């Protein structure tokens, strides 16, 4: 591995690094969550869209992809894979923080807003779905990654793309299944769902801003020009984020269209 960013707290990626341990622990937890879904079937298992109707499971799948990339980067000491992992993290980490904020807030207000009557999660499974991914992804960012260079405007653009890709996917699943995955979607109506998705985009943007501020608090802030931000395996230069969001939108549409009954 070359050229660690001066603000990156610990060396990564290397096979013997602490980051490799964090990635293995994280991936084990994420895969446990998917195994739990298979071992404890419920009506969603046989429905259109499977558990990918839930934002929680979409975020979990992205977390798996991010940490698998991180593990391969650790094992190979590949700067290319490391940069890819950091790029994926720009989307995955704020999304998982959003999932944790929304789930635990709504669950505290009224459990029935986010958990159907037939769904019961033991504490360990609940934490593995709704807390551990955001915690471990944040640890990976703060300790084993270079700083993000994405601006607030671009973070909002990415968050909005994700929110309004999820919306038609949820509506499609509801048309096939006759119900929404989260009870709150049924309660608030169409205008309420638009408000929820808009709020989610704002909260995810705020998560990105807070994560960047936390990174600066933990690791310091580097005063550099835009042109000098490249290198040191930073995730991407800011100008490339719209293209990345567009590519993610096309891929998400492809995946959504590929789901069968």
Verbal overview:
The chain is mainly alpha-helical and 261 residues long. It is built from eight helices and no strands. The chain is globular, with a radius of gyration of 18 Å. The N and C termini lie far apart (45 Å).
Sketch the topology as an H/E string, one letter per element.
HHHHHHHH
* β-sheet strand percentage: under 5%
Contiguous low-pLDDT stretches (5 residues minimum) are 237-256
Overall pLDDT level: 86
How would the global form be characterised? globular
| Continuous helix count | 8
N→C terminal distance: 45 Å
The largest β sheet comes out as: none
Strand tally: 0
Structural class, judged by helices and strands? mainly alpha
Assign a percent range to the helix content. Answer: 55-70%
Q: Whole-number radius of gyration? A: 18 Å
Main attributes of the structure:
8 helices, 0% strand, mainly alpha, 261 residues
